[in-house]
Design brief:
97 residues, alpha+beta, two-stranded antiparallel ribbon
Length: 97
């Protein structure tokens, strides 16, 4: 998810009223919203699972300067940098033609 956009700086609904998230940055609020189930609301095409398909779980969120990298899958596994869309991963494997 890209950060620094109007989408990432939106006010997200909170599941609790403890007041802990008042001092969080926009990055941290978006990350908290993802852990609280935001992905099913904003990306139903990805999170929607038909009968018989494997359910996606959110395993890890990595905060980078301009985006949040979400690790989704049926089970945790190492990512293949060659097929990744993370620019910090695939730039090292870019071939110079």
């Amino acid at each position: 998810l890209l950060t620094g956009t109007s989408f990432s700086s939106r006010q997200w609904c909170k599941n609790d009223d403890t007041g802990k998230s008042e001092n969080l940055t926009d990055h941290e609020k978006l990350e908290e919203a993802c852990w609280n189930g935001l992905l099913q609301e904003i990306l139903p095409e990805i999170c929607n699972h038909d009968t018989g398909s494997e359910k996606l779980y959110l395993w890890h969120i990595r905060q980078v300067s301009s985006f949040l990298e979400l690790e989704l899958g049926s089970f945790p596994e190492d990512k293949d940098n060659y097929f990744s869309i993370d620019p910090y991963s695939f730039i090292a494997t870019k071939s110079d033609n």
